[in-house]
Amino acid sequence: MQAGKVSVVIPVYNGERYIGDAIRSVQAQTYPASEIIVVDDGSSDGTREALQPFAGSICYLQQHHAGVGAARNLGVAHASGDLIAFLDADDLWLPEKLQLQTGYFREHPDYALVYTDMSMFDEAGILHPSVKQWLGMTLPSGWIFKQLFAETLFAADSVMVRREYLQRVGSFDESLRSGEDYHMWLRLARHYQFGYIDRPLLMYRQHPGMTTRTLGSASALPDGVPWEAVVIEKIVELYPEAVRELGASTVRQRLARTHFFLGCRRLAENNHRQARQSLGRALRYWHWELRYHIFYLASFFTPAQLARLKRLVRKPQLAGPSPQARTGTLG
Fold first, then answer.
1. What total of structural domains would you count in the chain?
2. pTM value?
């Protein structure tokens, strides 16, 4: 394997609309990828036809629809580079991404993974130039398992990883249809150091067909459990010593937050019955948080009753603090 040789793996499922732009963003890199591996996860639209203009410049693989984890595993299995970079079919890279990440690896030969900040955009333009700044995040380098356990931190297609280290910890968990990437990064972070480049080198597209793509825990699996909760449970089972290191209360609070945020989303969607289920689970994990109780009680109101209550809370009073000083809301 040639040092610094980069294989790009692009899983795609019914991505005819965006896949061409994704590939062109790889071809525009100032540090050229040695190969672009596109794994078609059983698309039923015109994805194959959309890839025809790139027939001579990509490696095209097909599989029956088995999920993004299986698609990434197939791509990695066919990769020849010592560095692997992942790109989703509906996202884009800025031209210097591969150059800056390979440069970081040359300076840190013992690091397993390098990730970057990202921007968010839709058809109208840039929504957030820096997700780090938008969310007020602190993005660390080094031994980051504790911080990564606390929150997801980065998207899969901001990542470049050493293939050797990826193979050491095993493949993506194909039983996970959401969060298989977060599961992988946590496994890597238990054993190796990560690097961070403080530039938004990934453009993360927002569009109606995103399905389960998410930056946080407000997305449920078919059984109503947040995908992050499933990943955390698997990591705790795999690394029981992590519970002692982090503290059992930290683990319970982490699980509680995933159910709380899902409950808040369902409450905002006026799905109060399912909101109550999620918020009740949050309370079972961590009943010390006052806002969990408040939102759980709010789920017993009808949407119309809750809307009236919100208006009452926000209504300026004849005496008392200015409207700008009032912050009381239920969602």
1. 2
2. 0.90
